[in-house]
C-alpha cells in the first residue's frame, strides 16, 4: 500500500505506463505536478511555447512511434488551447493523453481564475474524458485513460485534475492492480465475413486494395501482412493520405495516393474496379467525391475496428469489424488454405488498363529554369533524402498534397500529417515531437509559409531541446489552396488569400538562434537542401516557389472520380454551383 | 427463401427484414442504452445526438443497478433505417456505454410513460374531465374546488389522446416523464 499525493501519483502512473517524455506548459493549477516532475529524472519534460504545440508534438511522437503521446497543460486557457490538437487527434485516430490542471474542487462552478469547464469543452473532441474529484480514484483513472486511448480505434483522452486532488494523499493503485475496463473492443474479425471476402478475391476481375490510417494504427505487423497479401494476390493497391507508407511507394503494385488530389491511375482504378477492399480507411469525402457515382460497379468490403465506420457513408457488401492486423492474418490464412486462387485470366487485363492510366503521367508539370516549381522542390528533396532515416511532417494545403504526391514512403510511421481536421500549424510542432522520439533521424517539416506561421513560436522549443528539425517552407506568399479554389470557384477574386508583411525567414531563424537559408533559383536548390540536411541544428529553408501554381490532379468537389482535372487547361467551368457549396 | 426473401425457419420474421437499408422512410425507434453511472455520461450521449444532427423525441434516464453503477437511458429517436443503424453503432462505440438495444427492431417491446395533467374548470367541464379520466384510468392525485391533477401511465399515444381531450376542458399544464421501455418475454 503506497500512500502518496495526487501529484506524485500522476508521475508514478506515467512511469508505470512506460512514458518517457511529456510535452507541456506549467501554470497555477498544475504546479504540484510540475514540482514532482522537477524531483525525478525518469520522465523527460519538453517545455513548449503554446499548448496547441504540446498536443501536436504528442501526436507527432505517437504517430512516429506507435506509442501514446502525453501532454500536460494547466487549467482554463491551457486546456482550451489544447482543443485543436485534441480534435485533430480524434479525427486522425491518434492515441494521446492530455492531463490538465483544474481549479480546486471547492471552486468548481464558481468561475474562479483560469477556470473552464474543461471536460464539457473537450467532451466532443475526446474519445473519453474524466474529471477526477477524489485522489483515491486518480491513479486508476490515468491507467484507464491509457487503456482507452490505445484500445479499439485509438484516440485522444483527457484527465482533468483539480489542484486540491493533486495535493491530497491516497493509496496509489499500480497499473496491474487497476480494475479491468469493460471497454474491450472487438479485434478479431468474423471468420464467416472474412470467408465472403476471400471468395470475392478469388473471382474478382478488377480488384483493388484501398488502405488507410488504420493499417498504420494497427502496428508494424499489419503493414507486413498487407505487403504479403498484395504480393501474393498481385492486386493493385492505393492508399489515403493517412495510410501512406503501409505499402512501399517503390512496390510494383502501388498506384499512389487516391482522392481529391490523388493520382489519376488510383482514382480511375477505384472508379472502375469490381472489388474494392477497404482496409482501415473510412470513405472520407476527400476520397469518395460524389457519393452517388462513387465506384458504381464494385462490390465493397470494409475492414475497420470501429463498427460505426461501416455503412456510415458508403453502403458496403461485406463489413468486417476488427483490428486490421488480425483480420489480414485471417484473410491470408483462409485464402492460402483454399489454394491462393485469383482470377488469373482477368487480372492481366486489369493491369494493362491500369498501365494505360499510368501512362497519362498525371503528376507532370511545366518545368521552369527561372522559378522553383513546388513540385520540383519536392522532387529534389525526395532525390536528396531518399534512403536516409527520414521522417516527414507537413502543414496543411497545397504543399501537403504535393508532398503526398512527390515524396515516397517505404515504411509506416514515417509520414505525419493532419488529414481529417486539416490543421494549419500542425507540422512544426509535430516535427519536434517526432524528433524527440527519434533524436538521430532526419525530420523534415514540409510547410507552406502561411501554415508555418501559425505555430512558429515552437522554434523556441526546438532550440531549447536541441531538436534539429528541418523546416522546408515552400513560400509562395499565398494561401495557395485557398487561392486555387478562388481561381477555380470564385471568379479569380482572390479575397484575402495572400500575405503581405511576411517575415524575413532567414532573419527569423537567426532571431531564434538557428540557421536559415533563402533560395529562389532552381540552380541553387540542391545545394540549399544539402546545407539543410548537413546543418547540425534546427534549420529554416525559405524556398521561394512559383506563386500561382495549382495542385493537380484534382477531383472538383461534387464530382466523381472519373471527372478529374489534370491541369490548367481542364479547369474552365469544371465546377458547378452544387460543387461550390462543398468544401 | 420465399418471395419476400425471409429465410424459412428464421426467428426474425419481421417486416423490418424487408426494409431497404438505404431507404428514406423516416421511422421512430426506441433505444435502450445501458451506461456506466458516471458524471458526464448523459452529456456525452446527448452530445452525440446534437453533434451529429440526430433527433431526440423522448429521453429518460435513471440508475437501474446501484451495485454495478449502471444507468439506463431510454431514447426515442427518428431517422431513416441507415441513420438509426448509425446512431446505434455510434452509441455502441462510446466508452461508457455497456449495451445498446433497438427495442423497435429487436422484437416486441412494451413502452410506458407517466404524465401529470393539471386541469382547471367548473361545472360541466369539470365533471366531463373527471368522467374521461375514469375512462382513461387516470388517477386523481390532487384536487381543489377549481382543479384536478390527474396521473396517468400509458403509451405516448394514449397520453397524447388524453391531452387532446383535456385541452378544451381546461388543461393548464402537462408534465411527462418520457418513455421507459422493455422488450417482451425473456
Description:
The complex is a heterodimer of chains A (583) and B (186). With 583 residues, chain A is of the alpha/beta class. Helices cover 38% and strands 17% of the residues of chain A. Chain A has a six-stranded parallel sheet with strand order 3-2-4-5-7-6, with helices on both faces. In chain A, strands 11-10-9-12-13-14 form a six-stranded parallel sheet, with helices on both faces. In chain A, strand 19, helix 23 (525-534) and strand 20 (539-544) form a beta-alpha-beta unit. In chain A, helix 16 crosses helix 17. The N and C termini of chain A lie far apart (56 Å). The mean pLDDT of chain A is 96. Chain B starts with 26 loop residues before the first strand and ends with a strand. Chain B folds into two domains: 23-102, 2-Layer Sandwich (Alpha-Beta Plaits); 109-183, ACT-like. Chain A, domain 2 (Alpha-Beta Plaits), CATH 3.30.70.1150. Chain B is built from four helices and nine strands; from the N terminus they run E-H-E-E-H-E-E-H-E-E-H-E-E. Chain B has helices at residues 41-51, 81-92, 123-135, 156-166; strands at 27-36, 58-65, 70-79, 97-102, 109-120, 139-143, 147-154, 171-176, 180-183. Mean pLDDT of chain B is 89; it is low at 1-19. By secondary structure, chain B is of the alpha+beta class. Classes of the chains: A alpha/beta (583), B alpha+beta (186). The A-B interface holds A 119-120, 123-124, 127-129, 131, 148, 152-153, 182-183, 185, 306-308, 310-312, 315 and B 21-22, 36, 39-40, 43-44, 47, 51, 82, 85-86, 89-90, 92-93, 95-96, 98.
Report the major sheet of chain A.
Answer: 6 strands, parallel
Fraction of residues of chain B in helices? 25-40%
Distance between the termini of chain B: 28 Å
Report how far apart the termini of chain A are. 56 Å
How much of the residues of chain A is beta strand, in percent? Answer: 15-25%
Question: What fraction of the residues of chain B are assigned to beta strands by DSSP?
Answer: 35-45%
Spans of chain A of 5+ residues with little confidence (pLDDT < 50)? none
* Whole-number tally of structural domains of chain B: 2
At the fourth level of CATH, the homologous superfamily of the largest domain in chain B is ACT domain
Instruction: State the CATH topology of the largest domain in chain B.
Output: Alpha-Beta Plaits
Shape of chain B: elongated
What is the mean predicted local confidence, pLDDT of chain A?
A: 96
Per the principal axes of the C-alpha atoms, what is the gross shape of chain A? Answer: globular
Number of helices of chain B: 4
Count of extended strands of chain B: 9
The pair of chains with the biggest contact is: A-B, 21 and 19 residues
| Uncertain residue segments of chain B | 1-19
Helix/strand-derived category of chain B reads alpha+beta
What is the average per-residue confidence, as pLDDT of chain B, rounded to a whole number? 89
Amino acid at each position: 500500500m503506497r500512500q502518496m499525493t495526487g501529484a506524485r501519483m500522476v508521475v508514478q502512473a506515467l512511469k508505470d505506463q512506460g512514458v518517457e517524455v511529456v510535452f507541456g506548459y506549467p501554470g497555477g493549477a498544475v504546479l504540484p505536478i510540475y514540482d514532482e516532475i522537477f524531483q525525478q529524472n525518469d520522465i523527460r519534460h519538453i517545455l513548449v511555447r503554446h499548448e496547441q504545440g504540446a498536443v501536436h508534438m504528442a501526436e507527432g511522437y505517437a504517430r512516429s512511434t506507435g506509442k501514446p503521446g502525453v501532454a500536460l497543460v494547466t487549467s482554463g486557457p491551457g486546456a482550451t488551447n489544447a482543443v485543436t490538437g485534441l480534435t485533430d487527434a480524434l479525427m486522425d485516430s491518434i492515441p494521446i493523453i492530455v492531463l490538465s490542471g483544474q481549479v480546486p474542487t471547492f471552486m468548481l462552478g464558481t468561475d474562479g481564475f483560469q477556470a473552464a469547464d474543461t471536460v464539457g469543452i473537450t467532451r466532443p473532441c475526446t474519445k473519453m474524458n474524466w474529471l477526477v474529484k477524489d485522489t483515491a480514484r486518480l491513479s486508476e483513472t490515468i491507467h484507464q485513460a491509457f487503456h482507452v486511448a490505445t484500445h479499439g480505434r485509438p484516440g485522444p483522452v483527457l484527465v482533468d485534475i483539480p489542484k486540491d486532488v493533486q495535493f491530497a494523499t491516497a493509496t496509489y493503485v499500480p497499473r496491474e492492480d487497476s480494475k479491468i475496463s469493460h471497454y474491450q473492443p472487438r479485434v478479431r474479425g468474423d471468420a464467416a465475413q472474412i470467408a465472403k471476402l476471400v471468395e470475392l478475391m478469388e473471382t474478382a476481375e478488377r480488384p483493388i486494395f484501398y488502405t488507410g490510417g488504420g493499417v498504420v494504427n494497427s502496428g508494424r505487423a499489419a503493414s507486413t501482412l498487407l505487403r504479403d497479401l498484395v504480393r501474393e494476390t498481385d492486386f493493385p493497391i492505393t492508399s489515403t493520405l493517412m495510410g501512406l507508407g503501409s505499402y512501399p511507394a517503390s512496390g510494383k503494385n502501388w498506384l499512389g495516393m487516391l482522392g481529391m488530389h490523388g493520382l489519376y491511375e488510383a482514382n480511375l482504378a477505384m472508379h472502375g474496379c469490381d472489388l474494392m477492399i477497404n482496409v482501415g480507411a473510412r470513405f472520407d469525402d476527400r476520397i469518395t467525391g460524389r457519393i452517388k457515382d462513387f465506384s458504381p460497379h464494385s462490390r465493397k468490403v470494409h475492414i475497420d475496428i470501429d463498427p460505426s465506420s461501416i455503412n456510415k457513408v458508403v453502403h458496403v457488401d461485406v463489413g468486417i469489424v476488427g483490428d486490421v492486423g488480425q483480420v489480414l492474418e485471417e484473410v491470408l490464412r483462409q485464402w492460402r488454405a483454399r489454394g491462393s486462387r485469383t482470377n488469373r485470366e482477368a487480372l492481366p487485363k486489369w493491369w494493362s488498363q491500369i498501365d494505360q492510366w499510368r501512362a497519362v503521367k498525371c503528376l507532370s508539370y511545366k518545368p521552369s529554369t527561372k522559378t522553383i516549381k513546388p513540385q520540383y522542390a519536392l522532387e529534389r528533396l525526395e532525390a536528396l533524402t531518399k534512403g536516409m532515416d527520414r521522417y516527414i511532417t507537413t502543414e496543411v494545403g497545397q504543399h501537403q498534397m504535393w508532398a503526398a504526391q512527390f515524396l515516397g514512403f517505404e515504411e509506416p510511421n514515417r509520414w505525419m500529417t493532419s488529414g481529417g481536421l486539416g490543421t494549419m500549424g500542425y507540422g512544426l510542432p509535430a516535427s519536434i515531437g517526432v524528433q524527440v522520439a527519434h533524436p538521430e533521424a532526419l525530420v523534415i517539416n514540409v510547410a507552406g509559409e502561411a501554415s508555418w506561421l501559425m505555430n512558429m513560436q515552437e522554434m523556441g522549443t526546438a532550440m531549447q531541446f536541441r531538436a534539429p528539425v528541418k523546416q522546408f517552407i515552400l513560400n509562395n506568399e499565398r494561401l495557395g489552396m485557398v487561392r486555387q479554389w478562388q481561381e477555380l470557384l470564385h471568379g479569380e477574386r482572390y479575397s484575402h488569400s495572400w500575405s503581405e508583411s511576411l517575415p524575413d525567414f532567414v532573419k527569423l531563424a537567426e532571431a531564434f538562434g538557428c540557421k536559415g537559408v533563402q533560395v529562389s533559383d532552381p540552380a541553387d536548390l540542391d545545394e540549399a537542401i544539402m546545407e539543410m540536411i548537413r546543418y547540425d541544428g534546427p534549420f529554416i529553408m525559405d524556398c521561394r516557389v512559383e506563386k500561382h501554381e495549382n495542385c493537380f490532379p484534382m477531383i472538383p468537389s461534387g464530382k466523381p472520380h472519373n471527372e478529374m482535372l489534370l491541369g490548367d487547361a481542364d479547369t474552365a467551368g469544371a465546377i458547378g454551383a452544387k460543387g461550390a457549396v462543398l468544401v | 427463401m420465399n418471395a419476400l426473401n425471409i429465410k424459412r425457419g428464421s426467428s426474425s420474421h419481421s417486416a423490418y427484414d424487408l426494409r431497404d437499408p438505404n431507404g428514406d422512410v423516416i421511422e421512430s425507434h426506441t433505444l435502450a442504452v445501458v451506461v456506466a453511472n458516471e458524471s458526464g455520461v448523459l452529456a456525452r450521449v446527448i452530445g452525440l445526438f446534437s453533434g451529429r444532427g440526430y433527433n431526440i423525441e423522448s429521453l429518460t434516464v435513471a440508475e437501474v443497478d446501484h451495485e454495478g453503477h449502471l444507468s439506463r437511458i431510454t431514447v426515442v429517436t427518428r431517422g431513416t433505417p441507415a441513420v438509426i443503424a448509425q446512431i446505434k453503432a455510434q452509441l455502441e462505440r462510446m466508452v461508457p456505454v455497456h449495451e445498446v438495444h433497438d427495442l423497435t427492431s429487436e422484437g416486441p417491446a412494451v413502452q410506458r410513460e407517466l404524465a401529470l395533467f393539471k386541469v382547471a374548470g367548473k361545472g360541466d367541464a369539470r365533471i366531463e374531465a373527471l368522467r374521461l379520466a375514469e375512462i382513461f384510468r387516470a388517477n386523481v392525485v390532487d384536487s381543489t374546488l377549481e382543479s384536478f391533477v390527474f396521473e396517468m401511465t400509458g403509451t405516448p399515444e394514449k397520453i397524447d389522446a388524453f391531452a387532446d381531450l383535456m385541452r378544451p376542458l381546461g388543461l393548464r399544464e402537462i408534465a411527462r416523464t418520457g418513455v421507459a421501455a422493455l422488450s417482451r418475454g425473456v
